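SAMPLE LOG
Freezer: B-3
Tube label: C17
Construct: single chain, 157 aa
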Amino acid sequence: MSKNTKTKPIICLDFDGVIHSYTSGWQGPRIIPDEPVPGALEFIVKAQEDFIVAIYSSRSHALLGRMAMKAWLKQEFVKLCPGYERTPKWLADEITKNSFADPWEDEVDWAVNKIVNDIEFRVHKPPALVTIDDRAIQFNGVFPGLEEIKQFKPWNK
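STRUCTURE (predicted):
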């Protein structure tokens, strides 16, 4: 658990369908074949300024599932950094802010490890200020109709 849990609220993110595009469907807790949802990685980096970012997923119950999510995130962040000039500005700024080494590959490795290591990969759903999940209906004090639930579809279906 992060040291600054008392100073920042938690934002809980689902993994499949929110961070990982999940276009190939479920293939097991360790198999993560698809690209990130557009904007997901940038959202994580920006959210870390004000929140503790926690990921809780159906993969979370398995240690190897949590390890796979962490490795996938590192890989996807690194893919965005082929060189300083071709790295998105939001990520290049984060890398140069958190790095102290040359060459660029070492800076990327250092910053990506920091970004991903600051994410909490939870075994249980955390007491978050807010949860972002592609398979949820917001409860507003009135239960939804069963027909509404039966017809529910995630954003990407």
